Amino acid sequence: MYDFAPDPxxxxxxxxxxxxxxxEALTSGEPDVVANMANLAALIGEFVPDLNWAGxxxxxxxxxxxxxxxxxxxxxxACIRIPLGRGVCGTAATTGETQLVVDVHAFPGHIxxxxxxxxxxxxxxxxxxxxxxxxxxDSPLPARFTLDDAEGIERLAxxxxxxI
Length: 164
Ligand code: SME
Prior knowledge:
This protein is α+β, with helices and mostly antiparallel strands and 164 residues long. The chain has four helices and six strands; from the N terminus they run ααβββαβββα. It has one domain: GAF domain (Beta-Lactamase), CATH 3.30.450.40. It is 33% helix and 28% strand. The protein is globular and about 40 Å long. The site of methionine sulfoxide has 15 residues, from helix 3 and strand 6.
């Protein structure tokens, strides 16, 4: 059993340092990408407060070209396939840039998988300059995510890019 039990009062920088340490411990030496993404989604859920969804969409080739396909996550069942360029996730995948959305209702084309979501953070995972996946965090709180969260999840994305 793993029990990371993060302190709820941690400052964001320390919270994400501990999250990255835990991610390193759980994924180093494990070649199975599904196992790694599953544990990473669970870790995000343990370390980052006030989320209703956290997980992965991978860039995969479909019958009509590349698209985002749902990967391991915590939260309610979600949209399975998202076209590149669509929604917050598709925008992050196409631009290769983190999307920090303070109000999902104000984001053109936002895809509502869980009606409870009010704000969202999507970070692309890049391998050799190509987006291979995105990490998506949803919160029921408006304006839940800050630049500290974006930087923390970007560090996590860089750490795990070769392991998912
Ligand atoms: N809201 C996302 C869709 C994925 S769910 O939030 C899990 C989007 O607009 O791309």
